[in-house]
Specification:
Blueprint: H1 4-7, E1 13-16, H2 32-40, E2 48-51, E3 56-59, H3 61-69, E4 74-80, H4 84-97, H5 104-117, H6 123-130, H7 134-144, E5 153-155, E6 161-163, H8 167-179, H9 185-192, H10 196-207, H11 234-239, H12 247-258, H13 261-264, H14 267-289, H15 295-327
Parallel strand pairs: 2-4
Antiparallel strand pairs: 1-4, 2-3, 5-6
Helix pairs in contact: 2-3, 4-5, 5-6, 5-7, 6-7, 8-9, 8-10, 9-10, 12-14
């Protein structure tokens, strides 16, 4: 959804510096030390970005001021043809992705302005553009929101439209799980229009005998009778317990495999044991590292980990299918 890469392909021209107007920028003020450093450097400035309709600088005010200090009358530029709202969004995205970083307050105020002009955008979508955390965007949304005017759907980072609450998606996911207990988390998420993490939470809640929608999110749930817990997935049924084994049990299982000569005495078997040992260590390391990940990067890390977990779950299901075919 970024416009920056497209604009880099636009033609460049020289524009008279004195015709330019100040930027409608997320920055509160220019950094004069940065302006002087640019002016004193010997590098050629990259083209600035100018809103054609207003001649306002979208990206490059520090370069414009530095060019004036150098005694220049013109500077390389590219046009942006969109409206003023789109120009501001592009200014935020440009200043977030390169150059002098925006301050925390500048990012927060940019997020607040975008929330007011684009309330249908998701918290993560706004966070990605501003560098403000999705959690922080959500808090801002609650501060300014009119509960009676909340949009029924939001547009996510991928451009897909999703409900503003996950309650309905959770109910659809629960139905998908009841129809097909072995469905992958990705498939559940796709059919229900929710994230993989939410699909995982729904599966865990149903397995524990709890409702798919937490109490705090069931404001618009239709009246219905008690929800029966979903039948356990095939691998959970065979293990005689719900959920994945805890760390102590995993270590016990691994120790048992280490004593198996068919694994311990073959090259491929030893590789399996090494990978399992590394997997256990990696899982525990992620638990320790989770709190150190910056807020603006947690969503991306979570998506990667969820995808990796789904891949591992798929491999585990394939192993169990092979086991069933041999024992059945």
């Amino acid at each position: 959804m970024s416009m920056i890469s497209d604009l880099r392909q636009a033609s460049t021209f020289d524009i008279d510096i004195h015709t330019l107007l100040p930027a409608d920028s997320p920055r509160f003020a220019l950094d004069q030390a940065h302006v002087r450093a640019l002016a004193e450097s010997e590098t050629e400035f990259p083209p600035i970005l100018v809103h054609r309709a207003t001649l306002r600088v979208i990206d490059g005010m520090h370069r414009v001021r530095a060019a004036k200090l150098r005694g220049m009358d013109t500077i390389g530029a590219r046009w942006f043809e969109g409206d003023e709202q789109a120009a501001f969004l592009l200014a935020v995205e440009s200043n977030t992705r390169h150059g002098l970083p925006l301050s925390s307050d500048e990012r927060k105020q940019a997020a607040l302005r975008i929330l007011r002009t684009h309330p249908h955008w998701s918290d993560r979508s706004i966070a990605e553009r501003t560098g403000w955390s999705a959690t922080g965007v959500g808090a801002l949304r609650r501060d300014i929101a009119d509960p009676d005017a909340r949009p029924e759907a939001r547009v996510g980072r991928d451009g897909r439209v999703r409900p503003s609450t996950t309650a309905e998606g959770r109910r659809v996911a629960a139905e998908v799980i009841r129809r097909n207990p072995a469905a992958s988390l990705r498939e559940i998420a796709r059919q229900a229009g929710i994230s993989v993490g939410t699909a995982r939470d729904v599966r865990h809640r149903l397995a524990d005998g709890r409702p798919a929608v937490p109490d705090g999110r069931r404001t618009d749930a239709p009246a219905a009778g008690p929800t029966a817990p979903a039948p356990p997935a095939p691998d959970e049924e065979r293990s005689g317990r719900r959920g994945a084994p805890d760390l102590a049990r995993r270590i016990t299982l691994l120790d048992g495999l280490r004593n198996d000569p068919s694994l311990r005495l073959s090259e491929s078997g030893r590789l399996v044991l090494q990978r399992l040992h590394a997997q256990l260590r990696t899982t525990e390391e992620w638990k320790r590292l989770a709190s150190t990940i910056p807020l603006h990067g947690r969503s991306a890390v979570a998506d990667i980990l969820s995808a990796c977990a789904d891949d591992l779950k798929g491999t585990a299901q394939e192993l169990r299918c092979v086991e069933d075919s041999l024992t059945g």
